[in-house]
Amino acid sequence: MKNNKVLLALIFIIGNTFSVFAQEQLAPLIFGQSEQAKKTIKSNRSIDTIIYLVDTLDLPFIDDFSKNKVRSLSVPNPDLIVDSVSVKFRVNGVAADSFKIKLDTTYSFVYDSSSGLFNPNPNKRDTVTFYNIGQPNTNLYGWPAKRFYQDQSGISVVHLVPDSQGVNTVDSIQLVLDSPNYFWTTNGALYNNSLAINQPSFGIMSFDGTDKAGVPYDLVSSNSYGIADILTSKPIQLEYPSTDSIFLSFFYLPEGLAEPPEEEDSLVLQFYSPETNKWNWVWSTKGITSPDFKEVFIQVTDSMYLQKGFQFRFFNYATLSGSFDMWHLDYIRLGRFRRNNDAIDDLTIVSPPHSYIKDYTSMPWSHFKKDPISYTILDFEVNMKNLSEYGKPFTNYYKVFDSTSEVFSSTSVSQTCDADIAAQPGLPFKVCHFLNSSIQNNFSFPTTGKLNEERVTFWVLNSTKASPDVNIENDTISTKQIFDTYYSYDDGTAEQAYSVNEAGAMVAYKFNSVKTDTLEAVLMSFPDMLEDMSDRRFKIIVWTDLNSDPIYEGVLREPKVNGVHDFNRYPLADPVVVSGEFYVGWLQTLQKKMYVGFDLNIDNSQNIFYTVNNGSDWFNTSFKGSLLVRPDFGQANVPSAGIKGLEIVETEIDNIFNFYPNPVQYFLTIAAIDIGIHEYQIFNLQGKLILSNSFSTSTQLNIGDIAPGAYLLKVTNSSSDYTQNETLIVR
């Protein structure tokens, strides 16, 4: 049942994510009701109305999402902004402060000295024009609500009761001109290149149950269901005869690396008719599971769509309380003189390398510059796809830039990794480049002029040329190689969340420092989930050998929830010196899941270990991927949750024992953060000892025989003099 979806997602592990040892789990990113998620995003500009002007696009319409063409509401180019003011109404073309009119003619009276009478003359009619943004103007006609009397002494005025009156308001309007770089508007579809698999080209649009800020559409009901993300094209000039064989085609994929849609979920396509001013259903598909993108072809023949101003849009039906029921779109084409199932005469880049250095996606610049040649990979592969129905000869090369100039340009490659001189029709293939090698290029990232820098970024531009080629936008992809102060295995984005559901469990992540250095902090990403993690506690742990005691064990910390690619920095109270192999990780106090971001695109499972028995037995994780956990040897510059700069989490937790539930009726759990022997004692209010025993890490007490009332719970750490007292309520 759809209304059980959230509950099932919290209880069970989706798909094939069940671990051999049931303590570790992967879960979909189910965004929750954190205070951060509930914050309203407001503009800091004092603008009453923003109007986004839209131009009509001409055919052919082609977007493979290799570039983000969704209109940004932040208006990155200030040249597109035209400021003006708007008023509620104008009187006779003038922005008057107010108006008062009579609907019948009013008069001015002029004294005639010869007759001794006042002669009436009709007043000039007033036109009040009302302005409504996006609507036709409306006019109200009347006469001034006044009588004017003019004689030898001057003009006197008699005010009449008006039939209609109003006070003007002035609004500040920001007109945002259109840009040819935009093809779409959306309320929530996500541009990315990490959530799908086997896509036709680099870049996709993904649909789920969260808006453009990653916040669920419904923060109140976990079972809310309905229309979620909407992706709408700009108006298109489609005023052509139906004989022009106009087709719309697109690729779609359910699930990918995210939570799959169910049968009652759907992806829907609608067409807009400028003639009827209505959106109409054209195509939809139910929730399914498929490993490959499917291409759909729809011919446009109805005259009510063959108009200037035609639009189309996609939307999905989903659970609205999180990142559920995901769909992905790629390579959308609308054009004339096409045929059903026609191939795309295009050679596309699907994905560039995640990194150009050995073992890591990033490493400290101070470590890399010690021996750049040793730490640069020998070769790399670019994943590509030939969407054409013909074999295509090609060339491929790359260039490297720093912040100021080009630092390297490779020789061109004109064959696939398996030595085919042409890309085979309709198939994926790989192009190989050699870096730190005498085979073709001798390259490593240069350190000249950068030895005193703390962090350095290089851009690697990979380009392909083929002829003919219908879409040159996907021929060049730029990626960043970041050198900061940390080591990382991940690509910076979590597709799922990792947890261990055992009190006292520890997770260790293996790294290798290429030089002796001082570890100062650990960066961790905690995605926002449905579960409230404010009651979770953990300790940062550092080991040099998992068969030995830790070299560092920190104070109790609280996981700070943030986005799917944001980090929090947890400084070590006493920085430790490491060299060569070392492990960073955590110890958690409760049998409650503490979710850590997990990247499914890069497999470093061989470096992830966990234990649930005080370190007596360590198990290698059963999940392929990388934790969003990074050891930091300085002050890292990484994305953080909604703040400028990196969040530094300094808060220490005083208590080292947790008790739950309290009040309690039958079973009480006591969990300790420290490994060792502990003792608990329960006293009644008269000081009589009711229950006592020793335990290690955690224990569960059966207190069903204890009479209801208030008691004193005392827990002592036997390896120190630490004692914690709590009031225990027994029901």
Task: Describe what you observe in this structure.
This protein is an all-beta fold and 731 residues long. It folds into five domains: 31-73 and 179-335, Jelly Rolls, CATH 2.60.120.260; 89-168, no CATH class; 347-484, Immunoglobulin-like, CATH 2.60.40; 496-648, Jelly Rolls; 657-730, Immunoglobulin-like (Sandwich). Helices cover 3% and strands 45% of the residues. The protein contains four helices and 52 strands. The strands form eleven sheets. Strands 36, 37, 38, 39, 41, 42, 44 and 45 form an eight-stranded mixed beta sheet that branches. Strands 3, 16, 17, 20, 23 and 25 form a six-stranded antiparallel beta sheet that branches. A hairpin with a 6-residue loop joins strand 46 and strand 47. The longest helix is centred in the first third of the chain and has 7 residues, at 5-11. It is globular. It starts with a helix and ends with a strand.
What keywords describe this structure?
six-stranded antiparallel β-sheet; 3% helix; Jelly Rolls; Immunoglobulin-like; mainly beta; single chain; eight-stranded mixed β-sheet; 731 residues; 5 domains; globular
